[in-house]
């Protein structure tokens, strides 16, 4: 699944969508002209030209890792979603779960009583076999697992769901946090968190046990795959029978583990990070049981801390401050909204969609996506690096690509989830078990492509690669990304580029390996691949030079797929915008041409200001480039941008035509 990331904010609902008769939310025609810094030449830094004045006047709130349009959408949504949740009956699941969180006095009075039960069970484990069963039961239960367990379409038989087993076990965001000097402050903060967690849990010799936990996780990091390698859909598809898995990684009791996870009798799985799975099994066998127990307690306590008394919340937030640079905890009601949204997503989403996402917006988005698909087909037909047979295969995939807008056709049923307004900890535990049971229902069953991996209120979008579909939740379909009242150039530059981004994932360095049925099959010729990779290398070399944080450059290999999609999305949206003009010249509005409005809307859709620590986290573990280079990187490879803003040789980000990436 390829996700279009919009800032580092949680997925929540948004405020209402304008009708076509309304005034645009931003400015007279859809963008905020006061955000520009006209002292900056577009060719020297197009992001600062489009957003520089906004950046100068904006202070990142103390309780946020960043500020920008993503957080604007997020924060506008809070009051709206709060109203939906707070007006829900206390006896309802939504109302009951929210009240269990917001009743801080009750949470303080309960303190860690429910946690003690889980900690005692974790500390009572007396053998490696029992530990393996505890790890399996952690899915929908308490504590961490050494392995990730996910149920997705089988990449070689995409109509059936199968279990994927991959690497896991780290408390910090990525392996680099343990292995590189640049993340030493975050590692020290995690060590301190582990010590506090064990102390509060009553674990014997907490400082020593915490040191053992961090040493254990460092060993996990050393055998874990780098995030760039984990992008490769071929490397991460390694189907094995259970007998083959037992022979490949014999140090781990797989049958007992999988049975405890709710999958007894399983005969086939797919390994993701294959060597890491093998080496994790050996590490499990070689690690003292007491260390494994302490590790489970640390991660279990940290995981449940947001739902415990203030001393646990504050302890975890000390660590979060080191990780993101935030200095203030978000208000309790906002954290409660996030809990309800994450636990009852489609139940909240159904109410949200009914009230705030009009049919007119859905219809307008359908037109936009249709136009973008037509523009992508034209790009495919003109691609000089594609052989004729490859073009036909690409067009077949595009024609079968499903488009889903707003919300799913069929809603989830949460009737089996018990919510008690007086039991926050129990609600969270039951919700986790309910979610895992919901996922298990798909194992070995035909793929239901009507299911969504995001809720309707999510401010994001994704390409469901093995299902050959693109999904645009209602949450992203509002200004500045999409505004029914805005100038068409604005909608094509903003949401149009998002649509194009998701479409193009079907034809990028990983999408090329999945055919029109969703099957893992490289349908390009060897010559196609060489020509494509040559152009991709041009783009990758550009991104390798970008330095969003002093001393830390973008990893062009890690971000390759998203960078290609950003560029392709912009180009396809530009073509679709011009096609929508039907041969007529675009009007000049406010002294700006249609092309200028298009590129300005694109840049302002990435308006963002992020703390350095949060940027470092993103660059270490996220395949998306930081927002400023999601503006600069694509535009400098598009010929029309040069013409629109008079970018000339000598400008900082000018590229000679022969050095521009020509993937699409």
UniProtKB/TrEMBL annotation:
<keyword id="KW-0862">Zinc</keyword>
<dbReference type="InterPro" id="IPR042089">
    <property type="entry name" value="Peptidase_M13_dom_2"/>
</dbReference>
<dbReference type="GO" id="GO:0046872">
    <property type="term" value="F:metal ion binding"/>
</dbReference>
<dbReference type="InterPro" id="IPR000718">
    <property type="entry name" value="Peptidase_M13"/>
</dbReference>
<dbReference type="GO" id="GO:0005886">
    <property type="term" value="C:plasma membrane"/>
</dbReference>
<dbReference type="Pfam" id="PF01431">
    <property type="entry name" value="Peptidase_M13"/>
</dbReference>
<feature type="signal peptide">
    <location>
        <begin position="1"/>
        <end position="20"/>
    </location>
</feature>
<dbReference type="InterPro" id="IPR024079">
    <property type="entry name" value="MetalloPept_cat_dom_sf"/>
</dbReference>
<dbReference type="GO" id="GO:0016485">
    <property type="term" value="P:protein processing"/>
</dbReference>
<keyword id="KW-0645">Protease</keyword>
<dbReference type="InterPro" id="IPR008753">
    <property type="entry name" value="Peptidase_M13_N"/>
</dbReference>
<keyword id="KW-0479">Metal-binding</keyword>
<dbReference type="GO" id="GO:0004222">
    <property type="term" value="F:metalloendopeptidase activity"/>
</dbReference>
<feature type="domain" description="Peptidase M13 C-terminal">
    <location>
        <begin position="460"/>
        <end position="660"/>
    </location>
</feature>
<comment type="similarity">
    <text>Belongs to the peptidase M13 family.</text>
</comment>
<protein>
    <submittedName>
        <fullName>Peptidase M13</fullName>
    </submittedName>
</protein>
<dbReference type="InterPro" id="IPR018497">
    <property type="entry name" value="Peptidase_M13_C"/>
</dbReference>
<keyword id="KW-0482">Metalloprotease</keyword>
<keyword id="KW-0378">Hydrolase</keyword>
<dbReference type="Pfam" id="PF05649">
    <property type="entry name" value="Peptidase_M13_N"/>
</dbReference>
<feature type="domain" description="Peptidase M13 N-terminal">
    <location>
        <begin position="42"/>
        <end position="408"/>
    </location>
</feature>
<keyword id="KW-0732">Signal</keyword>
């Amino acid at each position: 699944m390829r996700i279009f990331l919009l800032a580092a904010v949680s997925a929540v609902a948004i405020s209402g969508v304008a009708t076509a008769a309304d005034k645009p939310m931003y400015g007279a025609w859809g963008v905020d002209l006061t955000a520009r810094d006209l002292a900056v030449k577009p060719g020297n830094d197009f992001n600062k030209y489009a957003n520089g004045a906004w950046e100068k006047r904006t202070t990142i709130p103390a309780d946020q890792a960043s500020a920008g349009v993503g957080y604007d959408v997020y924060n506008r949504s809070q009051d709206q979603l709060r109203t939906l949740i707070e007006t829900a009956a206390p006896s309802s699941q939504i109302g009951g779960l929210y009240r269990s969180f917001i009743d801080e006095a009750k949470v303080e009075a309960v303190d860690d009583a429910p946690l003690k039960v889980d900690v005692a069970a974790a500390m009572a484990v007396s053998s490696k076999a029992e530990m393996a069963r505890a790890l399996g039961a952690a899915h929908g239960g308490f504590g961490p697992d050494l392995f990730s367990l996910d149920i997705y379409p089988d990449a070689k038989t995409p109509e059936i769901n199968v279990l994927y087993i991959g690497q896991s076990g780290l408390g910090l965001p990525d392996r680099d946090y343990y292995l590189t000097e640049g993340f030493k402050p975050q590692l020290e903060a995690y060590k301190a968190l582990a010590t506090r967690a064990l102390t509060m849990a009553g674990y014997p010799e907490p400082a020593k046990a915490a040191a053992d936990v961090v040493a254990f996780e460092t060993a996990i990091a050393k055998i874990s795959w780098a995030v760039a390698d984990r992008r490769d859909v071929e490397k991460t598809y390694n189907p094995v029978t259970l007998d083959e898995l037992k022979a490949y990684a014999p140090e781990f009791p797989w049958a007992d583990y999988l049975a405890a996870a709710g999958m007894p009798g399983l005969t086939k799985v797919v390994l993701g990070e294959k060597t890491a799975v093998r080496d994790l099994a050996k590490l499990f066998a070689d690690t003292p049981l007491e260390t494994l127990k302490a590790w489970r307690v640390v991660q279990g306590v940290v995981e449940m801390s947001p739902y415990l008394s203030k001393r646990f919340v504050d302890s975890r937030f000390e660590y979060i401050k080191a990780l993101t640079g935030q200095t203030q905890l978000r208000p309790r009601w906002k954290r409660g909204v996030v809990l309800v949204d994450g636990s009852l997503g489609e139940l909240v989403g159904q109410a949200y969609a009914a009230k705030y996402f009009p049919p007119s917006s859905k219809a307008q988005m359908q037109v936009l996506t249709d136009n973008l698909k037509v523009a992508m087909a034209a790009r495919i037909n003109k691609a000089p690096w594609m052989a004729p047979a490859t073009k036909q295969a690409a067009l077949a995939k595009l024609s079968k690509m499903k488009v889903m807008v707003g919300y799913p056709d069929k809603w989830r049923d949460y009737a089996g989830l018990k919510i008690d307004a007086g039991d926050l900890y129990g609600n969270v535990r039951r919700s986790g078990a309910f979610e895992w049971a919901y996922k298990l229902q798909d194992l070995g069953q035909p793929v239901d492509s009507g299911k969504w991996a995001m809720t309707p209120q999510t401010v994001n979008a994704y390409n469901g690669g093995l299902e050959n579909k693109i999904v645009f939740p209602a949450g992203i379909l509002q200004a500045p990304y999409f505004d029914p009242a805005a100038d068409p150039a604005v909608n094509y530059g903003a949401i149009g580029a998002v649509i194009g981004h998701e479409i193009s994932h079907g034809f990028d360095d990983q999408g090329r390996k999945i055919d029109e049925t969703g099957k893992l099959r490289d349908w390009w010729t060897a010559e196609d691949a060489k020509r494509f990779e040559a152009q991709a290398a041009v783009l990758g070399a550009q991104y390798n030079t970008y330095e969003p944080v002093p001393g830390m450059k973008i990893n062009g290999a890690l971000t390759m797929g998203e960078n290609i999609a950003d560029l392709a999305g912009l180009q396809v949206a530009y073509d679709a915008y011009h096609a929508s003009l039907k041969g007529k010249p675009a009007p000049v509005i406010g002294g700006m041409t249609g092309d200028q409005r298009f590129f300005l809307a694109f840049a302002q859709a990435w308006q963002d200001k992020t703390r350095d620590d949060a940027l470092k986290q993103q660059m270490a573990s996220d395949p998306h480039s930081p927002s400023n280079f999601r503006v600069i990187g694509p535009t400098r490879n598009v010929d029309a941008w040069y013409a629109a803003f008079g970018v000339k040789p000598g400008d900082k980000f000018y590229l000679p035509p022969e050095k521009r990436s020509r993937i699409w």
